[in-house]
Amino acid sequence: MEHNNHFITCTILIILLTLLGILRQDCECTSPSLAPSPDLTFADVRLAVVYPIIQSFKLTITLDPLGITSSWVGSDICNYTGFYCDNPPDSTSATTLAAIDFNGFHLAALTLDGFIDQLPDLAIFHANSNNFSGTISPKIAQLPYFYELDISNNKFSGQFPSAVFGIAGLSFLDIRFNFFTGAVPPQVFSQALDALFINNNNFMQKLPDNFGSTPVQYLTLANNKFTGPIPTSIGNASSTLTEVLLLNNYLTGSRAIVRGEEPSKPVPIEQLLHEDRANMLEAGEERGVGREEELHPWDS
Ligand SMILES: *[C@@H]1O[C@H](CO)[C@@H](O)[C@H](O)[C@H]1NC(C)=O
Ligand SMILES: *[C@@H]1O[C@H](CO)[C@@H](O)[C@H](O)[C@H]1NC(C)=O
Ligand SMILES: *[C@@H]1O[C@H](CO)[C@@H](O)[C@H](O)[C@H]1NC(C)=O
User: Fold this and answer.
1) Which ligand is nearest to the CA of 104?
2) What keywords would UniProt list here (predicted)?
3) What is the longest distance spanned by two Cα atoms in the chain?
4) Is 240 helix (H, G, I), strand (E, B) or coil?
5) pLDDT tens-digit profile, the chain (300 residues)
6) Domain 45-295 in CATH: superfamily?
7) 223 C-alpha vs ligand 2 centroid, how far in Å?
8) Hey, whose CA ends up nearest to atom 11 of ligand 2?
9) Which residue of 41, 79, 85 sits with most ligand 1 atoms within 8 Å of its CB, as the best mutation to test the pocket?
10) Residue 93: Cβ within 10 Å count
11) In the chain, what are the domain boundaries?
12) What angle do CA 35, 36, 41 make, to 5 degrees?
Protein backbone atom coordinates (compact mmCIF):
# COMPACT_ATOMS: atom_id res chain seq x y z
CA MET A 1 0.00 0.00 0.00
CA GLU A 2 2.76 2.40 1.10
CA HIS A 3 4.56 1.66 -2.15
CA ASN A 4 1.46 2.25 -4.28
CA ASN A 5 0.70 5.63 -2.65
CA HIS A 6 4.20 6.71 -3.34
CA PHE A 7 3.76 5.74 -6.99
CA ILE A 8 0.52 7.72 -7.29
CA THR A 9 2.07 10.81 -5.64
CA CYS A 10 5.00 10.60 -8.03
CA THR A 11 2.73 10.25 -11.04
CA ILE A 12 0.64 13.22 -9.98
CA LEU A 13 3.78 15.26 -9.43
CA ILE A 14 5.09 14.37 -12.86
CA ILE A 15 1.77 15.28 -14.48
CA LEU A 16 1.71 18.59 -12.60
CA LEU A 17 5.27 19.42 -13.60
CA THR A 18 4.53 18.54 -17.22
CA LEU A 19 1.45 20.74 -17.17
CA LEU A 20 3.48 23.58 -15.66
CA GLY A 21 6.06 23.13 -18.39
CA ILE A 22 3.41 23.27 -21.09
CA LEU A 23 1.81 26.33 -19.49
CA ARG A 24 5.16 28.06 -19.19
CA GLN A 25 5.92 27.33 -22.84
CA ASP A 26 2.50 28.57 -23.82
CA CYS A 27 3.19 31.82 -22.01
CA GLU A 28 6.44 32.34 -23.85
CA CYS A 29 4.77 31.70 -27.18
CA THR A 30 2.13 34.35 -26.65
CA SER A 31 4.42 36.83 -24.91
CA PRO A 32 3.09 40.30 -25.74
CA SER A 33 6.48 42.03 -25.41
CA LEU A 34 6.88 42.44 -29.18
CA ALA A 35 3.24 43.00 -30.09
CA PRO A 36 1.41 46.31 -29.88
CA SER A 37 -0.74 46.58 -26.80
CA PRO A 38 -4.34 45.75 -27.71
CA ASP A 39 -5.55 49.11 -26.41
CA LEU A 40 -3.48 51.13 -28.90
CA THR A 41 -5.02 52.20 -32.17
CA PHE A 42 -2.76 53.39 -34.94
CA ALA A 43 -3.52 55.90 -37.69
CA ASP A 44 -2.10 53.42 -40.20
CA VAL A 45 -1.18 49.73 -40.15
CA ARG A 46 2.34 50.76 -41.19
CA LEU A 47 2.70 52.59 -37.90
CA ALA A 48 1.49 49.53 -35.99
CA VAL A 49 4.23 47.56 -37.73
CA VAL A 50 7.05 49.87 -36.62
CA TYR A 51 5.73 50.43 -33.09
CA PRO A 52 7.23 47.26 -31.55
CA ILE A 53 10.53 47.87 -33.35
CA ILE A 54 10.84 51.36 -31.88
CA GLN A 55 9.85 50.11 -28.43
CA SER A 56 12.44 47.31 -28.55
CA PHE A 57 15.11 49.81 -29.61
CA LYS A 58 14.08 52.13 -26.78
CA LEU A 59 14.86 49.34 -24.31
CA THR A 60 18.43 49.11 -25.64
CA ILE A 61 19.21 52.79 -25.08
CA THR A 62 21.69 53.14 -22.25
CA LEU A 63 22.06 56.93 -22.14
CA ASP A 64 19.41 59.56 -22.84
CA PRO A 65 20.64 62.73 -21.14
CA LEU A 66 18.04 64.94 -22.85
CA GLY A 67 15.09 62.69 -22.01
CA ILE A 68 14.24 62.23 -25.68
CA THR A 69 12.77 58.76 -25.35
CA SER A 70 10.16 59.86 -22.84
CA SER A 71 8.11 61.05 -25.82
CA TRP A 72 8.30 57.60 -27.46
CA VAL A 73 5.07 56.31 -25.91
CA GLY A 74 1.65 55.55 -27.29
CA SER A 75 0.42 55.12 -30.80
CA ASP A 76 1.16 58.63 -32.14
CA ILE A 77 4.54 57.64 -33.57
CA CYS A 78 4.59 60.61 -35.97
CA ASN A 79 4.78 62.85 -32.90
CA TYR A 80 7.66 61.02 -31.19
CA THR A 81 10.68 63.31 -30.88
CA GLY A 82 13.02 62.54 -33.78
CA PHE A 83 10.49 60.62 -35.90
CA TYR A 84 8.92 61.99 -39.11
CA CYS A 85 6.06 60.55 -41.13
CA ASP A 86 5.12 60.96 -44.76
CA ASN A 87 3.03 59.31 -47.48
CA PRO A 88 5.15 56.54 -49.02
CA PRO A 89 5.73 56.43 -52.80
CA ASP A 90 3.71 53.22 -53.14
CA SER A 91 0.56 54.64 -51.55
CA THR A 92 -0.35 58.30 -51.32
CA SER A 93 -3.14 57.49 -48.87
CA ALA A 94 -0.88 55.67 -46.40
CA THR A 95 1.07 57.27 -43.56
CA THR A 96 4.38 55.75 -42.67
CA LEU A 97 7.58 56.39 -40.73
CA ALA A 98 9.77 58.04 -43.37
CA ALA A 99 12.64 59.75 -41.60
CA ILE A 100 14.51 59.77 -38.32
CA ASP A 101 16.54 62.74 -37.14
CA PHE A 102 18.40 62.08 -33.88
CA ASN A 103 20.98 64.82 -34.53
CA GLY A 104 22.44 66.02 -31.25
CA PHE A 105 20.29 63.78 -29.07
CA HIS A 106 23.36 62.22 -27.34
CA LEU A 107 21.69 58.82 -27.13
CA ALA A 108 23.82 55.76 -26.50
CA ALA A 109 23.13 52.21 -27.67
CA LEU A 110 25.42 49.32 -28.44
CA THR A 111 23.96 48.75 -31.89
CA LEU A 112 21.41 50.03 -34.40
CA ASP A 113 20.94 46.50 -35.79
CA GLY A 114 17.34 45.42 -35.56
CA PHE A 115 16.23 49.04 -35.57
CA ILE A 116 16.85 51.06 -38.73
CA ASP A 117 17.09 47.93 -40.88
CA GLN A 118 13.63 46.83 -39.67
CA LEU A 119 11.76 50.06 -40.53
CA PRO A 120 10.37 49.13 -43.95
CA ASP A 121 9.73 52.60 -45.44
CA LEU A 122 12.61 54.48 -43.85
CA ALA A 123 14.31 56.88 -46.28
CA ILE A 124 16.50 59.02 -44.03
CA PHE A 125 18.48 58.32 -40.88
CA HIS A 126 20.39 61.21 -39.29
CA ALA A 127 22.19 60.57 -36.01
CA ASN A 128 24.96 63.15 -35.81
CA SER A 129 26.47 63.49 -32.31
CA ASN A 130 25.16 60.46 -30.50
CA ASN A 131 26.95 57.60 -28.79
CA PHE A 132 25.89 54.78 -31.10
CA SER A 133 28.33 51.97 -31.85
CA GLY A 134 28.49 48.54 -33.45
CA THR A 135 28.20 47.88 -37.17
CA ILE A 136 25.62 48.66 -39.84
CA SER A 137 23.55 45.57 -40.67
CA PRO A 138 23.55 44.35 -44.30
CA LYS A 139 19.77 44.11 -43.86
CA ILE A 140 19.66 47.87 -44.39
CA ALA A 141 19.96 47.09 -48.10
CA GLN A 142 16.44 45.63 -47.99
CA LEU A 143 14.90 49.05 -47.38
CA PRO A 144 13.55 50.08 -50.78
CA TYR A 145 13.38 53.84 -50.18
CA PHE A 146 16.50 54.41 -48.12
CA TYR A 147 18.79 57.13 -49.46
CA GLU A 148 20.45 59.15 -46.71
CA LEU A 149 22.65 57.82 -43.89
CA ASP A 150 24.35 60.16 -41.43
CA ILE A 151 26.01 58.47 -38.46
CA SER A 152 28.68 61.15 -38.02
CA ASN A 153 30.28 61.81 -34.64
CA ASN A 154 29.39 58.51 -32.98
CA LYS A 155 31.44 55.56 -31.77
CA PHE A 156 31.26 53.25 -34.76
CA SER A 157 34.41 51.20 -35.33
CA GLY A 158 35.75 48.32 -37.39
CA GLN A 159 35.96 48.13 -41.16
CA PHE A 160 34.18 50.48 -43.56
CA PRO A 161 30.41 49.76 -43.28
CA SER A 162 30.18 47.79 -46.53
CA ALA A 163 26.48 47.19 -45.88
CA VAL A 164 25.92 50.52 -47.63
CA PHE A 165 27.03 49.13 -50.99
CA GLY A 166 23.80 47.15 -51.13
CA ILE A 167 21.59 50.23 -50.77
CA ALA A 168 20.63 50.93 -54.35
CA GLY A 169 19.25 54.41 -53.84
CA LEU A 170 21.82 55.71 -51.37
CA SER A 171 22.87 59.25 -52.28
CA PHE A 172 24.27 60.67 -49.05
CA LEU A 173 26.75 58.92 -46.77
CA ASP A 174 28.26 60.68 -43.78
CA ILE A 175 30.36 58.56 -41.42
CA ARG A 176 32.88 61.23 -40.36
CA PHE A 177 34.12 61.45 -36.77
CA ASN A 178 33.96 57.77 -35.91
CA PHE A 179 36.62 55.11 -35.41
CA PHE A 180 36.42 53.22 -38.68
CA THR A 181 39.69 51.71 -39.79
CA GLY A 182 41.29 49.67 -42.58
CA ALA A 183 40.92 50.38 -46.26
CA VAL A 184 38.14 52.24 -48.04
CA PRO A 185 36.70 49.70 -50.51
CA PRO A 186 36.74 50.73 -54.20
CA GLN A 187 32.97 50.13 -54.46
CA VAL A 188 32.21 53.35 -52.62
CA PHE A 189 33.78 55.36 -55.42
CA SER A 190 31.58 53.75 -58.04
CA GLN A 191 28.40 54.22 -56.02
CA ALA A 192 25.95 56.88 -57.24
CA LEU A 193 26.42 59.18 -54.25
CA ASP A 194 26.09 62.97 -54.12
CA ALA A 195 28.08 63.33 -50.93
CA LEU A 196 30.62 61.15 -49.18
CA PHE A 197 32.04 62.34 -45.87
CA ILE A 198 34.55 59.98 -44.29
CA ASN A 199 36.93 62.45 -42.65
CA ASN A 200 38.20 62.00 -39.08
CA ASN A 201 38.34 58.23 -38.92
CA ASN A 202 41.34 55.92 -38.93
CA PHE A 203 41.18 54.84 -42.54
CA MET A 204 44.60 53.87 -43.82
CA GLN A 205 46.28 52.36 -46.86
CA LYS A 206 46.21 53.64 -50.43
CA LEU A 207 43.23 55.24 -52.09
CA PRO A 208 41.88 52.81 -54.72
CA ASP A 209 42.67 53.54 -58.37
CA ASN A 210 39.00 54.11 -59.23
CA PHE A 211 38.91 57.00 -56.75
CA GLY A 212 38.17 59.45 -59.58
CA SER A 213 35.13 57.57 -60.87
CA THR A 214 33.11 58.93 -57.98
CA PRO A 215 30.18 61.06 -59.13
CA VAL A 216 29.98 62.87 -55.78
CA GLN A 217 29.75 66.60 -55.42
CA TYR A 218 31.21 66.63 -51.92
CA LEU A 219 34.02 64.39 -50.73
CA THR A 220 35.98 64.69 -47.51
CA LEU A 221 38.83 62.35 -46.72
CA ALA A 222 40.70 64.63 -44.31
CA ASN A 223 42.21 63.52 -41.02
CA ASN A 224 42.68 59.87 -41.80
CA LYS A 225 45.85 57.89 -42.45
CA PHE A 226 45.68 57.46 -46.20
CA THR A 227 49.07 56.85 -47.78
CA GLY A 228 50.64 56.84 -51.21
CA PRO A 229 49.85 58.95 -54.24
CA ILE A 230 46.47 60.48 -55.00
CA PRO A 231 45.22 58.29 -57.86
CA THR A 232 45.51 60.07 -61.22
CA SER A 233 41.85 59.23 -61.84
CA ILE A 234 40.94 62.26 -59.71
CA GLY A 235 41.11 64.31 -62.91
CA ASN A 236 37.98 62.50 -64.06
CA ALA A 237 36.01 63.42 -60.97
CA SER A 238 36.30 67.13 -61.55
CA SER A 239 33.13 67.57 -63.60
CA THR A 240 30.96 66.76 -60.59
CA LEU A 241 33.23 67.51 -57.65
CA THR A 242 32.56 70.82 -55.97
CA GLU A 243 34.56 70.18 -52.85
CA VAL A 244 37.21 67.62 -51.98
CA LEU A 245 39.17 67.72 -48.76
CA LEU A 246 42.24 65.60 -48.41
CA LEU A 247 44.26 67.39 -45.75
CA ASN A 248 46.09 65.71 -42.89
CA ASN A 249 46.73 62.40 -44.55
CA TYR A 250 50.02 60.95 -45.80
CA LEU A 251 49.21 61.40 -49.47
CA THR A 252 51.91 62.39 -51.92
CA GLY A 253 52.18 64.03 -55.31
CA SER A 254 48.90 65.90 -55.37
CA ARG A 255 50.13 69.04 -57.14
CA ALA A 256 51.90 67.25 -59.94
CA ILE A 257 49.02 64.89 -60.58
CA VAL A 258 46.38 67.56 -60.66
CA ARG A 259 48.46 69.69 -63.03
CA GLY A 260 48.94 66.65 -65.21
CA GLU A 261 45.18 66.32 -65.60
CA GLU A 262 44.66 69.97 -66.50
CA PRO A 263 43.32 69.40 -70.02
CA SER A 264 40.25 67.62 -68.61
CA LYS A 265 38.82 70.20 -66.18
CA PRO A 266 41.20 69.81 -63.24
CA VAL A 267 40.06 70.09 -59.66
CA PRO A 268 41.36 73.50 -58.56
CA ILE A 269 44.34 73.03 -56.32
CA GLU A 270 42.77 75.42 -53.81
CA GLN A 271 39.95 72.95 -53.30
CA LEU A 272 42.36 70.14 -52.71
CA LEU A 273 44.50 71.86 -50.15
CA HIS A 274 42.35 74.34 -48.29
CA GLU A 275 39.67 73.86 -45.71
CA ASP A 276 36.19 74.46 -46.97
CA ARG A 277 33.79 76.89 -45.40
CA ALA A 278 30.86 74.52 -45.07
CA ASN A 279 31.70 72.92 -41.74
CA MET A 280 32.32 69.54 -43.27
CA LEU A 281 35.27 69.12 -40.96
CA GLU A 282 33.34 69.88 -37.85
CA ALA A 283 31.71 67.32 -35.67
CA GLY A 284 28.87 69.58 -34.64
CA GLU A 285 25.29 69.38 -35.66
CA GLU A 286 25.69 71.72 -38.63
CA ARG A 287 26.53 69.53 -41.54
CA GLY A 288 26.92 72.13 -44.25
CA VAL A 289 24.43 70.39 -46.52
CA GLY A 290 21.08 68.83 -45.84
CA ARG A 291 17.75 70.55 -45.65
CA GLU A 292 14.98 70.43 -43.13
CA GLU A 293 12.34 69.53 -45.72
CA GLU A 294 14.26 66.36 -46.51
CA LEU A 295 12.71 64.91 -43.40
CA HIS A 296 9.53 64.58 -45.45
CA PRO A 297 11.30 62.78 -48.25
CA TRP A 298 8.40 62.35 -50.64
CA ASP A 299 6.69 65.74 -50.36
CA SER A 300 6.47 67.40 -53.74
C1 LIG B 1 2.64 65.69 -29.54
O2 LIG B 1 3.50 65.64 -28.42
C3 LIG B 1 3.46 66.80 -27.61
C4 LIG B 1 4.47 66.60 -26.49
O5 LIG B 1 5.60 65.96 -26.92
C6 LIG B 1 2.06 66.98 -27.06
O7 LIG B 1 2.02 68.19 -26.32
C8 LIG B 1 1.08 67.05 -28.19
O9 LIG B 1 -0.23 67.10 -27.70
C10 LIG B 1 1.21 65.84 -29.09
N11 LIG B 1 0.35 65.97 -30.23
C12 LIG B 1 -0.51 65.03 -30.57
C13 LIG B 1 -1.31 65.29 -31.79
O14 LIG B 1 -0.61 64.00 -29.95
C1 LIG C 1 29.16 59.94 -25.19
O2 LIG C 1 29.21 59.51 -23.84
C3 LIG C 1 30.25 60.08 -23.08
C4 LIG C 1 30.28 59.49 -21.70
O5 LIG C 1 29.21 58.67 -21.42
C6 LIG C 1 30.05 61.59 -23.03
O7 LIG C 1 31.11 62.18 -22.31
C8 LIG C 1 30.03 62.13 -24.44
O9 LIG C 1 29.76 63.52 -24.42
C10 LIG C 1 28.98 61.44 -25.26
N11 LIG C 1 29.06 61.90 -26.64
C12 LIG C 1 28.01 62.34 -27.31
C13 LIG C 1 28.26 62.80 -28.71
O14 LIG C 1 26.90 62.37 -26.84
C1 LIG D 1 39.22 58.92 -67.13
O2 LIG D 1 38.08 58.44 -67.80
C3 LIG D 1 38.38 57.98 -69.13
C4 LIG D 1 37.06 57.63 -69.80
O5 LIG D 1 36.19 56.99 -68.91
C6 LIG D 1 39.29 56.76 -69.02
O7 LIG D 1 39.61 56.27 -70.29
C8 LIG D 1 40.57 57.19 -68.31
O9 LIG D 1 41.40 56.08 -68.11
C10 LIG D 1 40.27 57.83 -66.96
N11 LIG D 1 41.48 58.38 -66.42
C12 LIG D 1 42.01 57.92 -65.30
C13 LIG D 1 43.29 58.55 -64.92
O14 LIG D 1 41.48 57.05 -64.63
Assistant:
1) 2
2) Leucine-rich repeat, Repeat, Secreted, Signal
3) 108
4) coil
5) 455 566 555 455 454 445 444 444 444 444 445 555 668 999 999 999 999 999 999 999 999 999 999 999 999 999 999 999 999 999 999 999 999 999 999 999 999 999 999 999 999 999 999 999 998 999 999 999 999 999 999 999 999 999 999 899 999 999 999 999 999 999 999 999 999 999 889 999 888 989 888 998 888 888 888 888 888 888 877 777 776 777 777 777 544 333 223 223 333 333 333 334 345 566 555 444 334 446 888 764
6) Ribonuclease Inhibitor (3.80.10.10)
7) 21
8) 131
9) 79
10) 7
11) 45-295
12) 155
